[in-house]
Structure formats: structure tokens, C-alpha cells
Amino acid sequence: MITVAAVGDVHLDEEMRGRYRRRLGGLAGDADVLLLAGDLTKHGTVEEARVVAEEFRGLPVPVVAVLGNHDYQSDAPDAVAEVLRAEGVTVLEGEGTVVDCPGGRLGVAGAKGFAMGFPGRCASEFGEPEMKSFVRHSREAAEGLRRALKPLEADAVVALTHYSPVEDTLAGEPPEIFAFLGSYLLAEAIDASDVDLAVHGHAHRGTECGTTPGGVRVRNVALPVLGRPYGVYGIG
Amino acid sequence: MEYEPHIRDMLTTLKRVAGAFKADGVPFALTGGFGAFARGAPPSRHDVDFAVLPEDAERALEVLAKAGLRPVDAVEDWLVKAHDGDVLVDLIHSPADSPVTPAQLARATPLQVDSVRLPVMEATDLLVMRLRALTEHECDFSGPLATARALREQVDWGRVRAEAGSPYARAFLVLLHQLGVVGAEHSGVRHEPPQYAAGHLQQALAEDPRTAEQGIRVRVAGDDVYLSGSVSCPRRRDRVLEVARERMPGRRIHDELSVVRFDGPVREERLT
Ligand SMILES: [Fe+2]
Ligand SMILES: [Fe+2]
């Protein structure tokens, strides 16, 4: 059995310093690893990234993260990732990592993902260059996840994204904006591999539980959805 | 009713002036703070103001002199003044270059003030007159504000807006709206249609660096703006309200926001 703690959308900045870490005291007893599903900052500044890095520094379990759209807001995602890595957080974008846990090896494939929508209510790479690049970014993001999943050799595999792979976990959000909250290409990439659990954030008003068309469990771990410091999921 | 001595003196003067005008057939109406008092506002501590026609101003002053008041030289050309002991009586005839008209005096209604019955200027006319008197050097809103609050049911606000058009009067109407004394339709604040207003505010809440909140629901119904959704801490909630107030001047912002809680008990879910 491998236990995974996961949370997204902590949206930390100077004002939030220390508020979240206070809730992490029981982490060692709860889980083998902590996954962060993006939107770690408010505006994606280096200063906010430092708050995040300090909030998650020196925890008793490994921390693996992807960035979210808020972490891109200051056009400095690389710098944000660098600050986190300097404090020992593994930041993934189109890559995977394997964490050795007492219950076995956990593979984590991470990608931010992107919007685009779900079958039947979905944008296409057609028309204006802005529309094409919007959809192309979503395709590349899903491709990144696929690439990250493929070579993972592990006992259990988790797909970690910021955007949602399915509509199930968006229930509660206005249906009109579903297309901005995720992309079915992420689910397709997940279903193409042997994945045990998919976790994402971004949909603050969504619902925790869903599944991909292929039957993989999806959990929306956005902090406002959880109402608790992190979700804990036992695999195997 | 018992009044403090100063008010008592002013009421005595008021009676004397009204009696003198009635005896000599000078058309007049009580206006200003005491006019408002007659219509239900708290008693004024300022001058006793009467409206008279411009052509009657000199005669009215003579009538008051005959009744024992002491005419005073006024530097202003829109009123004449007389003293009754310590009490100053203003006879206003051409406030802000719009002369008092027979129609205004005809609209005045006889009301009881203390023990005397005398014509009191209509509430709308009275407020318009006060607002017209606002200038760069005399723009204290506290008097008109007390009047507006007390008389709000009696005032035709559409006429106030149409007839008192100075920047001071317009600013005063915006203030009244912000204080909830009048609705937006009378404040002169032009609103964008609610659908656009909601859209713009929602985008502003995401794009403004103070908030960067994407999940705030904005509903606009008339003058009312309802904000719902969750923010991560109380300070953020204040910021959202701050941005909303800035972007939606003249509308009432209703805070239905909640602060995200993450103090629920951690429990493990076994995926089998
Ligand atoms: Fe978020
Ligand atoms: Fe997000």
C-alpha cells in the first residue's frame, strides 16, 4: 500500500505565510508523499514562490509539484520552479519521477495541462492564429503527460496535473466554463497508460471525485474543494 | 413643545415676521432650515429664511422695519436681511440667479410651526433652493443632508435633479445615493447595463493584481451587486470588495463571499 497526500490551489503569498504549514503536522503519519497540483502562488512571482518553498521545506515526505496557471501569471514559471527546486520540491512539466515509498515505488507523471474542453463542447485548431495556438498548447500539454507516463517503471502510478482531465470533477462550476477548466486529451493520455490515480486542481468550485472514461479514479484536490489540508489516497 | 432658548427666540422671530407679512399682504413662504423643520426635520440653529418675490424685497424689508426689526446691509444681491435682536432673518429673492416665482409661493402649503400657521415652501422647492446656494465657498453638505434625509418622502427627486444642476448639487445627489437616501435613478450616476457590468467586474477581479481571483461570481440586479464564491483569506475578501467598490461606484456591493476553510479532518480514502 502506498499512500499519497495531494492538494492544489494553495495560492500562497506573503499574507498566507505560515497559515498552510500549520496544517502539515500530521503529514508523516498520513502519507508517503505530498503532491501539489498547481496554483501554488497567487501571481506567479518569485517572492510568492519563496513563500511556497518555505511553506513546504523540510517536510518528512518527498514533495512533487506541477505549476498552475496562476504560477504563470508573471511570465516567470521557470524562475518559480527554480525557487521550489532549490528547497527540494520536485517540479514536473512533461516529466515523470519515481519516489521510493515503504509500500513500493510510486511513479508520478506531471504536467500542467491546459483548457480546451470535453468531447462535443471543445475548441479546435481552426481559424485565427490565437485559436490555433490555444488548442495547440492544450495538445502539447497532453502530449507532455503522455510522454511522462510512458517510461515510468513503478508499482503504482499517479498522473498529476493542474487542469482537469474529466468533467466529473468540475460539477459545481458553471458548465459554460468547463472548456476553460480542462481537456479530455489529458484523460486520453491517462487512459493510454497504466495509471492508478489522477489528481488535479484548478476547479475551485468543483467536486472531489470522478473517473476517466477508462475507469481511472480522478480526484480534484483544489483546496477549496477539499476543505481539509490535503486529500489522502491509498493505492494497492 | 420645549425648545432651547436660542430656538425659542428664532420661533418668536418667525412668528413676528409671518404676522407682519400677513398683515401687509406680502406674499412669502418659509424656507431654509426652519422650512425643513416645519416639514419634519430637526430644528435649525441657523438663520430664519423666507422666500419673497424679487419685486417685493424692498417692501418686505420696510414691513419688517415697521414691525421693529433692524434692516442690515447685505453684500449679496440675492437676498436682504434684518435683525430681530440676535436672530438674523434672510429674505431670499433671487438665489443663484433664479428668482423666486409666484408659482413657487403658490405651491407653498400652510403648515403649523409651533403656534403659528404660515406658508411653507414645498419640500422640492426648498431643497432645490438650498442646493442652488452651494458654491465653491459654501459647500457644506451637512445642512442639506439633514434636510434631504428628513424630507425624502416629500421630495420629487426627479425635479431636484432637473432643477439643481450645479456640480455641487450633482455631487450631493451622488452622496445621497451612496448613503442610501435616494436610489441610483435619482443620483445621476450613469450605469452600464448590468450584464456588461457583471462581465467587466468579473474580469477585473481576475486581472487586478490586488485580487487575481478567478472564481468570484458576480450578479448585478439594478443597483445591487452580489459577490459570491470563496477566497483564501479574510484580507483577500477585503481586496475583492475594494476592487468591486472602485469598479462599481454608485452601486451597493453585497458580500456573500466565503473564506476557504481547510481545517477539516484528514481521512484516508482507499482506492481499491
Ligand atoms: Fe487555482
Ligand atoms: Fe488554476
Automatic annotation (TrEMBL), chain A:
It holds the Pfam family Metallophos. GO terms for cellular component: membrane. Residues 3-205 form the Calcineurin-like phosphoesterase domain. InterPro entries: Calcineurin-like_PHP (IPR004843), Metallo-depent_PP-like (IPR029052), Metallophosphoesterase_sf (IPR051158), UCP008292 (IPR016538). One of its GO terms (biological process) is lipid A biosynthetic process. Signal peptide: none annotated. Keywords: Hydrolase, Metal-binding. One of its GO terms (molecular function) is UDP-2,3-diacylglucosamine hydrolase activity. The keyword ATP-binding does not apply. This is Metallophosphoesterase. It comes from Thermobifida cellulosilytica TB100.
UniProtKB/TrEMBL annotation, chain B:
It comes from the Bacteria. SUPFAM superfamilies: Nucleotidyltransferase (SSF81301). It holds the Pfam family BON. Residues 193-261 form the BON domain. This is BON domain-containing protein. It comes from Thermobifida cellulosilytica TB100. The lineage of its organism: Bacteria, Bacillati, Actinomycetota, Actinomycetes, Streptosporangiales.
